[in-house]
Amino acid sequence: MVEQLLLGVNTILQPWNFLAVLLGVVAGIIIGALPGLTSPMGVALLIPFTYGMDRVPAICMLVALYCGGTYGGSISAILVHAPGTPAAAATTFDGYPLAQKGMAGKALGMACISSGVGGLFSVIVLILLAPVLADIAIKFGPPEYFALAVFGLSMISSLGARSTLKNLIGGALGVFLATVGTDEMSGFTRYDFGSTHLMDGISFIPVMIGLFAAAEVFRQAEAGIRKVMLDKKITGLLPSWKEIKEVKATLLRSSLIGTFIGILPAEGGTVASFIGYNEAKRFSKQREKFGTGILEGVAGPETANNAATGGAMVPTLALGIPGSGTTAVILGALLIHGMRPGPLLFIQHANVVYAIFAGMFLANLIFLMVGLGGAKLFSQIVRIPNYMLTPIILVLCIVGSYSLHNNMADVWIMLISGVIGYKMREHGFSAAPIVLGLVLGELIEISLRRSLIVFENNPFIFFTRPYSVLFLVLTVLGLLSPAIRSLIENRGFKRSKPIRS
Amino acid sequence: MKNRDLRLGLILMTILLVLYGVSYTFPKSVMSETHTSAAFFPRIVLIVAMGLTSILIITNILRKDASSVYKVLEKEQKLRVLGSMALALGFSLGAVFIGTLVSIFLLIIAMMALWGVRNKVTILLVALLTPIFVYVIFTKILLVQFPTGFLF
């Protein structure tokens, strides 16, 4: 493993790969800093730019955007009280009051340092854990894969929108969309309605661009012109050594929390950041000062949400089950570049996997430097008015979708997905479960049908194999978790308000 | 209609039923005795989706108050949203006839005007720089062949 990792480091330090990571980080910080533009949207929009690139720089650029975007969300959270990404919502609690006290620079510095610490910690866990998990998963047969994919899908109940039922409906619709096109086992086409474009199935990328980016364009159109006034002067970016020492326990705790939450399929940085904030408050000696502007209140959520990035990559790479909405899009990008995430990825494309590990580590180091060095510059990004950005994003949605296969059919799919995504959001649905269903649908179908063929149509096979039973039990627990959570909240055991984005 | 969730549930249920019906038009495999057919999995998914949608419908019928709070868009907001959708649609159709880069230029101008931007310099700057960016990155570097139409 060490040899492969060193090889990965060597690969990522090649000038073009390094440049790809740097560009990804900078693009991520910019996208993250702009309220309304999220990491999944950024990754979906960036995928078309990677079509002509080699695998390593392409995937590393997307992963770097994910890391940079998660940190970037804190900039507008601190400066204008509008989280750039949902994962930065908890940062507003203490970040903005700090800015109002004239300590915006220190808050931005702490956000950057804690994001870097959380991100680096989670990458180390990713490097150590993902190959082990892949080694276990290599022994899985179709029944285990089916149960695992169903478990991954069951976690959508906690993704995105507030309603568990709507998340599950969204997930089911996503799985259904994955069945469109030629059936791999019988060779017959399904739901193509005579269209040759649909015979190959619905491409992930136009759907993702439509649901995440075009839908956001229409939502921004609804909101109208938004200008941000920035009157805070940013000085003194680096927190003192004493201030960093004061939050070291929070950094460690939130790193552990964020990484663990990230590893859970479909749980993401948003949940991690709120739990990170709550736990920082619970263990703090200055609990009463939380919410009034305290550096610990910035360090808690920022460490946790960036720690979730490495954690979320663990199930994505080792099992092929996305750990968050953004990793679902990254999973789609891996497929576009001819790599199927899962245990075989570590055998067939070990060089790419270890380069991704090294790239992610590098991305965290880069945004630590770029974030601290360029905080004043990045803070100006929040001033960019949405009426300039939104038409450009719509253009990128269209040309990006077209670029996939050089045909207009993908543009139509993107536009339809965008309108559906906008309308569904209006009705309280979230895009992430649909995307998760779409990327997992094929795996669920193939593993279910292979299981039935291999085990002579015996449906009880899923209940006789240990790992399969384990995943199915976890599925039931996952589906019941919102009800259990709500029961606990109603009984007053919950310490703070329910946390969802 | 009691509320919009109920209406959505009914529309969704109708679509799911139609799709379920369509699955009976799929050809059957000659190996269907030992292999599951092409319709097997979509039907399972559709049944699950219909079950979940039924819950959505029933819970909304049983709900005493129509308390689902939805934003009611003002006329101006609706105009901007529908206008943006129409412009995207127009762009996709127009690109084939008048060319992608010209369509991008026109789309940006129309969209910014729709949003009520009055600064002509800003509009022109964004409208000119975006197609140049698309041309350099997508056409020259990524070698994407966009429809050129009769203009460009």
**What is the percent of helical residues of chain A?**
55-70%
Helix and strand pattern of chain A: HHHHHHHHEEHHHHHHHHHHHHH
Euclidean distance between termini CA atoms of chain A: 38 Å
- Proportion in β-strands of chain B: under 5%
List SSEs of chain B in N-to-C order: HHHHH
Structural class of chain A: mainly alpha
* Total of domains of chain A: 1
Global outline of chain A: globular
Number of DSSP strands of chain A? 2
Tell me the span between the first and last alpha carbons of chain B: 49 Å
What structural class do the secondary elements of chain B suggest?
A: mainly alpha
How are the strands ordered across the major sheet of chain A?
1-2
Tally of structural domains of chain B: 2
Say what oligomer this is.
Answer: heterodimer
Give the low-confidence spans of chain B.
none
> Treating each run of at least 4 consecutive H or I residues as one helix, how many helices of chain A?
21
Q: What does the largest sheet of chain B look like?
A: none
Average pLDDT of chain B: 85
| Protein chain pair with the most extensive contact, residues per chain | A-B, 57 and 68 residues
Description:
The complex is a heterodimer of chains A (501) and B (152). By secondary structure, chain A is mainly alpha-helical. Chain A has one domain. Helices cover 70% and strands 1% of the residues of chain A. In chain A, α3 (39-46) packs antiparallel against α4, α7 (142-154) packs antiparallel against α20 and α9 packs antiparallel against α18. Chain A is globular. Chain A starts with a helix and ends in an 11-residue tail after the last helix. Chain B has 152 residues and is an all-alpha fold. Chain B has 5 helices and no strands. In chain B, α3 (75-98) runs antiparallel to α4 and α4 packs antiparallel against α5. The chains are: A mainly alpha (501), B mainly alpha (152). At the A-B interface, α8, α9, α18, α19 and α20 of A face α1, α2, α3, α4 and α5 of B.
